[in-house]
UniProtKB/TrEMBL annotation:
NCBIfam families: lysA
Enzyme Commission number, as recorded: 4.1.1.20
Protein name: Diaminopimelate decarboxylase
InterPro entries noted in UniProt: Ala_racemase/Decarboxylase_C, DAP_deCOOHase_LysA, De-COase2_N, De-COase2_pyr-phos_BS, Orn/DAP/Arg_de-COase, PLP-binding_barrel
Role summary: Specifically catalyzes the decarboxylation of meso-diaminopimelate (meso-DAP) to L-lysine.
HAMAP family linked: LysA
Domain Orn/DAP/Arg decarboxylase 2 N-terminal per the UniProt entry, residue ranges: 58-307
UniProt key word Isomerase: no
Binding site for substrate: R303, R335, Y339, E367, Y396
Gene name linked to the record: lysA
Subunit structure: Homodimer.
GO molecular function: diaminopimelate decarboxylase activity; pyridoxal phosphate binding
UniProt keyword annotations, A-Z: Amino-acid biosynthesis, Decarboxylase, Lyase, Lysine biosynthesis, Pyridoxal phosphate
Amino acid sequence: MTLTDVLPSIGRSLQTKLEPDVWPRSASATAEGLSIAGISVNELAARFGTPAYILDEDEVRRRCQAYRAALPGFEIAYAGKSLTCRAVLHWMAEEGFSLDVCSAGELAVARAVGFPAERILLHGNVKTTEDWKAALGYEVGRIVVDSLDEIEQLGSLARHPQRVLIRVTPGVDGHTHKAIATGVENQKFGFPLREAMTAVSAVLAQPGLRLDGLHCHIGSQIKSVASFELAARRMVEFIGQIRDQHGIVPRSLDLGGGHAVPYLPGEQEFDLVGYAQRVQVAVNYTAATLGLPAPQLTIEPGRALVANAGITLYRVVTVKGSYVAVDGGMSDNMRASLYGARYLVRLAGRSSTAPLRTVSVVGRHCEAGDVIATDVSLPADVHAGDVLAVPVTGAYHHSLASNYNQVCRPPIVGVRDGWARPLVRRETEEDLMARDVG
Ligand code: LLP
């Protein structure tokens, strides 16, 4: 039971304000409902249908600029896995960012917008023949190697010296969901510190490869700056060991992404300024102690740049007891089912003075676990046809979307200054049938 169940009048007054931190800054609530970038969600729902991902361009750019201002000496590479489409990659290129891709598919989008090849890093624990072909064909600047097999494969494929980073798992627990914790040892990514020198020797033995630096990514949705600081220290210490053993000093250190965002009101914002200071000090101090030049630092945020710039609009199809069922579900939001992620849901198409009640917002798919949000407060008069909005869906929603139940994936609609345009159109049954050639 929530406070609003006991005191419905509190619930009524709360519904008139937008919860801070989770909505894009351009979102506002009026008596007619929610608007974003000056456009009412009813208009967006009518024009583009539901479900629909809405992406606020200014919010993405504002976040990029906040990163640039907080981390002036860092290279910032957008992690494309969080949300890749032409428009977003174009904005990232314009903001002066680099780009992390991890498949030929992501690279194809980068290529389509002419993303500068020297600013692209290719990642992944599995790189297929198609991935190698695409990356070498486009001459991406750096490739992050993840296994001894890869070092050998790339060594024989690279036509001219290819700059590589070696992915290391520094043995740091980022205290996040175990499915997205990648800094701890004994897992599929990278080389644990105790084996990483073997990778260094393997790279140095390949005439077609040039060791540019080291890479680590300790996980995603990480709130603790101390975990990044510890990882940074361990990585610089390892650079010292490489110098001692091989007499060379790799010039760059990529500390990955993983900066947490608030999904619910009241959740702590990532301490970006603290991160910048503490990581820089940890790197400089450790390097100075070991008599090393400070490495060039790269970071790879994805979620922190786009998550809070996106909202999803749904239409209520039916209300049954405490279940409010909408026209989307786990095919457009896998995070709730995969990680038990929690979301806020808001009646967005109108305002209501009805008391709040606690409900579960569920999807249309044939599974009891197809839930978007449990125990959320919505006005008791929510009914079929209402438009609901879920914030913080800009990252790992479209990119994780599926066609479960042959449902077509929603569009991404870009909004800015009173204008809305489709960035990615809604999938159609023809799109689905086009692949079904049997
Ligand atoms: N760099 C590397 C090498 C990564 O693997 C990732 C994310 C990032 C950067 C960006 O991390 P971010 O800043 O976005 O947290 N599907 C999960 C997240 C998986 C993250 C995978 N790697 C989720 O929805 O929470």
